[in-house]
Amino acid sequence: MARSGAVGWAAAVIAAVLAGHASARGEEATPTGQAITPAAATGALFQTLDPELSQFPGHSAGDASALALSPDGKTLLILTSGYNLMFGADGKPIPDASMEYVFVYDVAGPRPVKRQVIRLPNSFLGLAWAPSGQRFYVSGGVDDDVLEYTAGAASFALARTFALGHKQGLGLKVKPEAGELAVSPDGARLLVANFQNDSVSLIELASGEVTEQDLRPGALDPALAGRPGGSFPRAVLWTADDKAYVTSERDREIISLGITGGRIAIQQRLPTRGQPVALARNATGSRLYVALDDSDGLVVLDTASNQVVERASTLAPAEVRPVSAHRLGGAGSNGLALAPDGRTLLVTNGAQNDVAVVRLSAAAAGAAASPARDPDGDEDEDDRAAADRSAVIGLIPTGWYPTAVAMAADGGRIFVVNGKSNTGPVPDACRVNLSIAPDHDNACKAANEYVWQKELAGFLVLPTPSPSELGRLTRQAAENNRYRAAPDPADAATFAFLRQHIRHVIYVIKENRTYDQILGDLEVGNGDPRLAIFPRAITPNQHALARQFVDLDNFLDSGESSNTGWTWSTAARTNDFTEREGPVNYAERGLQYDQEGDNRQINVGYATSAERVAANPLSPSDPDVLPGATDVAAPDGPDGAAGQGYIWDAALRAGLSVRNYGFYGDLSRYEPSAGAAQIPLDREPYKTNHQVFYVAKAALMPLTDPYFWGFDQALPDYWRYKEWEREFDGDVARGDLPNLTLLRLPHDHTGSFEAGIDGVNTVEAELADNDYALGLVVQKLANSRYASDTLIFVLEDDAQDGPDHVDAHRSPAFVVGPYVRQGAVISRRYTTVSLLRTMEAVLGLEPMGLNDALAEPMAAVFDVRQPPQWTYAARVPPVLRSTALPLPPPARAEAGCPTAPRRSAAWWAKAMAGQDFSVEDHLDTAAFNRALWLGLKGETAFPTVRGGRDLRSNRARLLAAAKLSPCRA
Length: 969
What we know:
Elements: H1 7-19, E1 28-29, E2 35-36, E3 45-47, E4 64-69, E5 75-80, E6 100-106, E7 113-120, E8 127-129, E9 135-139, E10 145-151, E11 156-163, E12 178-183, E13 189-194, E14 199-204, E15 210-214, H2 217-220, E16 233-240, E17 243-248, E18 253-260, E19 263-271, E20 275-281, E21 287-293, E22 297-302, E23 307-313, E24 333-338, E25 344-349, E26 354-359, H3 362-365, H4 381-387, E27 391-397, E28 400-407, E29 413-420, H5 442-445, H6 451-454, E30 458-463, H7 467-480, H8 489-501, E31 504-510, H9 515-519, H10 540-548, E32 550-552, E33 555-556, H11 562-571, H12 576-586, E34 598-599, E35 602-603, H13 609-615, H14 647-653, E36 658-661, H15 717-734, E37 740-744, H16 763-782, E38 790-796, E39 813-816, E40 824-826, E41 830-831, H17 832-843, H18 850-854, H19 905-911, H20 925-937, H21 955-962
Parallel strand pairs: 31-37, 31-38, 32-40, 33-41, 36-37
Antiparallel strand pairs: 1-2, 3-30, 4-5, 5-6, 6-7, 8-9, 9-10, 10-11, 12-13, 13-14, 14-15, 16-17, 17-18, 18-19, 20-21, 21-22, 22-23, 24-25, 25-26, 26-27, 28-29, 29-30, 34-35, 38-39
Helix pairs in contact: 1-7, 10-16, 15-16
């Protein structure tokens, strides 16, 4: 892009955008409802990253997180920071195959050539060259160190390891995590962000001496105790040998550092709108560029004065930008690279799967930039006025969730890495770290088909596009994200009708099941009956709802696991913090589950340590540990409303009423490790005024039932239903049912077999309990005054806990109530985002962000010509007859169905020994799934070949071949 800063060049791109046509090449749909076309550019090369594992030939790594181009432009480094665990037949990680990686590519020629793969025990985001190009540095993540690699005759070798000296992180039972790092221009010092310790460490590279500087205001000045600042330090960059910057992701500030010798001084804190997650500088260091997640923005600083030179959008050119996009967040701007011309900035938009090409204004480019020249030679006044504003002039499609970008030294090529890919079928769906009996099916243990293992990183190389090519690519990226998709008039009429007739929505979230696990034995739809380990006899209500209303046999959860899944399920997107943290946490490479209102195990719904300790005596009393009611994982709402991007925020903005039952709670007090602070199980805590739930979102605190039990697998969902029923009956009596009800029914996750009460302590009983509770909710509504103006939406937050013959994200979902089609199979591809968009359309809510604003609501689910009357009678799963739950007398349909679980509670407790059921997803999922299969199916061979086949035809023959139980409860 030698002349990319010129207005005439930009005008040529825009002309191509308006006149050209996109032509998708290899288009794929993602579980987020978007499309990706990573090979769309002419001459593009898109490949996975092969770590050359002898045990797993052809395996590719996941979670590419950083790029670093050598000072001479000849060598490109790619770092992974994520899951990247591989397991053997014994169910344990294979040490030399369960690593993070630095891929070393020679990019001097026309095509990148892989020269070396360096294996790292752990890493997290940090990768940087020394100015000499003879060595580079990598952060060691949870190992709390920095690794130095030096060039040899043919490869790089580990030379030194710098220990950072942290025994723990700041929070409640958290570990340290070395994050991003940068080398000073003179090559003498290295600065590393201590992501979990709210500090930076300065390493004198000659001596190895390490100096640490706390970034928190209260730690620097007691008079500022309890003031937010400096937490979750993310990006670091030097602009001179005596000046550097670090960003605070949680507290949304850029911190200017003065560095003299081995001393660090905090010079200034600059607040940002959005989370600052990436830094770049111009050649002289006079300009600092800051990418802002959540707000889809770019800030340019004058480093001499620390004044803002300019703010600009990073989403898309105005010609394709969606309507009202300026009010919404969701592009996920998370990586930066300045082109050699000094006038073009490349920005990875992780959540929109593209690279934005930003033409910098003269002021934003700084003194080092060449004067902008008009290619047509007659730069006029309009041209000069446009040149004074930085703007996106084009988009380049990438793989799923790009994380970093670089440009070749001659400006002729662009390099991009992304973190994810589609998974395809997962018949084994394994994530292994077994501690249970060794007699399970070894084939599954070694299959390595867990969702985080199946999402692979990508490496894209493309020629720097010409104006006409960039115009075509821009149109393609806009089409991938539905930027200008026209709403269907018939669909619009459907939802206009529904908004007039539907006044209430009950939103139920359950935990972790796949479509095949639950509905694989349905007589219709694309289910595999051989994978139906929770068939009709165990889950009769979900089967009945799918048949009475709609079977959504192509519904995909957008999240991979509960940390991404709960955010997708309540906000229709994640932020970059969650996307970077999620796979690292699930691989047990440090970090923690920060996505349901706790940060570092602390309930940040409360702003002060005193409030936190009052709610949870386990909380740290130090006022400078994460002060303020700010959740680093919370997406923003419209108009930059920080952390207010959830469905309940949208309802409250619309003036609607909300009631919360179990969403986003502090669950640490349910754990035995809480000791005296543990809240004991209580079936009906309302009767004794016993608060059992402490919500972790400030907005939900006045809207939450304190007597509704949160995630604890020892308590049956039946009792959760009874507490909801108690309040529902009051709502009916008063005539004030909330417009939006948030209802959590988590027992299909299963677990805590030894502690389970009322005899609900086997897998079959727990799944049946969850199914029955859902059936009771539907029955209760059907028999109430609100049956004709209330819809129930049900989904699993993710689908990670089992096999599926189509995709690791495919999951059961239900829509129940008036105007829902009857007895229909809907195979249209819908996602978590689609479901949230539908709730918004029904209730008349404004979108929370870009994803839901651009998503297509689920119009195919509804038939507004139907009368609003409907009925439903809950089925009692026969296996619940073996429990102590208070149940109605047996129905005739239960005759002949087994009422005892196949295995005892003691068997399940032994089979699941070593599993952590205290919070969601702290499981060895493969061992869990194999134990489920053995416990429910016995020694029947576990099916492994699926190929994503369409199994909608010949259902009777498939069901007969599966030899399912004749029980039709």
